[in-house]
Amino acid sequence: MTKTKTAKLGPDMFSRDENGLLSNSDYHFNEDGSVNWRSMIQNEHLFPNRDWFKTRSQTMPRTVEGLKDHQLLIKLSGIKELARLRGFKSINYKVVKCEQDHVAVICEIAFLPNYETGGEEVVFQDMANATIHNTSDFGQIFLETIACNRAFVRCVRNFLNIHIVGDDEINKNNGKTNPNLTKDSSPSSISPSEILKTSASNKMNCSDFEDFKQVLRDWWREEKYRHEQASAWEDWSDIPASELRVLLKLING
Predict the structure, then answer these.
(1) Could you give the CA distance from residue 98 to residue 105 in angstroms, rounded to a whole number?
(2) What percentage of the chain reaches a pLDDT higher than 70?
(3) What is the pLDDT of residues 208-217, one digit of tens each?
(4) Measured by CB atoms within 10 angstroms of the end CB, which terminus of the chain is less buried, N or C?
(5) Cβ(12)–Cβ(23) under 8 Å?
């Protein structure tokens, strides 16, 4: 069944008025006239902060009704919704540290002009990190992704004065660091290069490293992935830790 095309469900959903606000959205305002971005967050994007109640030996509520901001967490979906409501021109990430056990990223967002900024575009940035000590389980393999998500969350909520911590920001490690990802791992442990080898075999049908090098050549032609030292790699262990994670993300989609 084909849906009828209407402006209300299409372009008009993204049109902004002379104040820089979405024409089809209802905004809430503070007494000083600024937008109350906190009140724009729908409850579906919020949930109780389990750790806050656990450390105080209190029963965790079933809903977010009546909870204070410091008792809540906000989902990544809620931050994305806020960014959409506020409007932005671009989002850029800069990796300032990328090691096997520690990644730090700066997120920079160019927010669209609105009446709050005097009709001027504002560029705001914030930083976050991800380490094997503040992530858990499978996330310890994708530190760049987690660091980027954390930096994005902090950039949006700090710019909009949101005081609810993002679910992506909290430490979910609980003291469970994967010994296979530490710098002191033994040669026999499962390393990121072994994980890449397994993923390439299962998802790219690579029976050996030479097969994977052909994948890299194809990606180079497609401008999907390029690294100036890739032609010199002769084994999985030759790939730098930072590139291992990039390649894992490409393989796993």
Answers:
(1) 9
(2) 88
(3) 899 899 999 9
(4) N
(5) yes
Tokens read off for 91:
């989002």
Lowest mean pLDDT among 134-138, 143-147, 204-208: 134-138
| Phi-psi domain of 77 (left: phi exceeds 0; alpha: psi -120 through 50; beta: other) | alpha
The count of residues in the chain is: 253
Task: List, in order, residues 6 or more apart from 196 with CB less than 8 Å away.
Answer: 236, 239, 244, 247, 248, 251
Asked if residue 41 lies in contact with residue 31, where contact means CB atoms within 8 angstroms, the answer is no
Q: Cβ(50)–Cβ(64) under 8 Å? A: no
Kindly state the tokens that stand for 187: 């040669």
Under the banding of pLDDT at 50, 70 and 90, the label for residue 253 is low
Q: How far apart are CA 50 and CA 195, in angstroms?
A: 32
Domain locations in the chain as residue ranges: 37-166, 190-252
CA distance 180 to 188: 9
Interatomic CA distance for residues 242 and 228, integer angstroms: 14
What pTM does this model have?
A: 0.69
Distance CA 21, CA 16 (A): 5
**Coil, strand, or helix at residue 53?**
helix
How many Cβ atoms from other residues are within 10 Å of residue 86's Cβ? 21
